[in-house]
Amino acid sequence: MDMDLSGDSTGSTRLACKNAAMDAISLPASTKSSKFPFGSVRTFTYLQYDIEDLAEHQFVAVVDKATDTTPGWVIAEFSASSESLIRVDVSIPQFLRGGLQLELPANRPMVTEIKIPALHSSLLSHKLAIDKQACAQQREVFSPLLRQYISEPYESKYFVNVKEVNINLHGIAPYMPPPLRSVGAADGLSLQLWSDPSCNSTMVVSLELDFLGSMGKLYMRYRTVFAAFPLLVVAIVLRKQFKVYDETGRLELCKIASQMAHFIHRHIHELCRRPGSVFARFTPDVVPRPHVPRHVAIKLRQASCYIGILFSV
Q1: What is d(CA 154, CA 150) in angstroms, rounded to the nearest whole number?
Q2: Among 3, 117, 239, 272, which is disulfide-ready with 188 (CB 3.0 to 4.6 Å)?
Q3: At the top level of CATH, which class does the domain 81-222 belong to?
Q4: Tens digit of each residue's pLDDT (9 = 90 or more) over 9-43
Q5: Could you give the residue range(s) of every CATH 2.60.120 domain in the chain?
Q6: pTM of the entire structure?
Q7: Which pLDDT tens digit goes with each residue over 148-190?
Q8: Where on the phi/psi map is residue 190: left (φ > 0), alpha (ψ -120 to 50), or beta?
Q9: E strands present in the chain
């Protein structure tokens, strides 16, 4: 694109420009009346370049080709990467105890990115709140716009007119092992915040754990465990019954309450302490108590090991 800046003068001044339309990123419009990041016809356009990309150019120009006068604004600035990037090194226990609170200064860049490497679990739900002061001199051009994202597995979500939002991650699917080379997971949760730099007011970002939301996500993602656990109990009881039947060849039935009380008292407690020991050391021998005769203990053992057949039916 060629631009003729000579105007009415006799000289000729022309600029050879590179069209940056291909580098433009569309963002959802964030105003005081915005409620959702979708469904709005109006959008923001965002461009970001590194200094190395602009080394061969002398000017950055914004060309307005609209035939009619339309309301709009343009904000451009140069900022250092060290000022726009905030890396929070906090552990999970520290975050669970006190949460996280950051105060952004009034002279902050237009885009601030907050990286929290410790927060990458899809089982944790968080609550984020932004407390901002009123503009010191003029009206706010746009309301804060927030983007949450993680690199691996990649997911991104926008929040407009941010005040209080829920931060949730999908992450890896339930019962799936993590990737062997999890490079992106080291960055954890990333929060990208756009705010009006001309407002000249401080902003406080607070992030804390949502306990009830985390319990709900734990149930929704691993609720099949509650259905599989009774099947595990029945399978262990059946294995015990068949093993005793192979050794003794006798079958005696007793009440369901007696069978389940015996199983829970002896094997569930061991399963909670050492899960592998229940399957590795599942023997039919019962050590009788000192005050119980040997023949009585063996009879109780045989009578209480087979009622699970009735229970499974």
Answers
A1: 5
A2: 117
A3: mainly beta
A4: 555 566 777 778 888 888 998 888 888 888 766 78
A5: 81-222
A6: 0.69
A7: 998 878 889 999 999 999 999 887 766 677 666 655 456 789 9
A8: beta
A9: 2-4, 14-16, 25-28, 43-46, 85-87, 100-104, 111-116, 126-132, 145-150, 155-160, 164-167, 189-194, 203-209
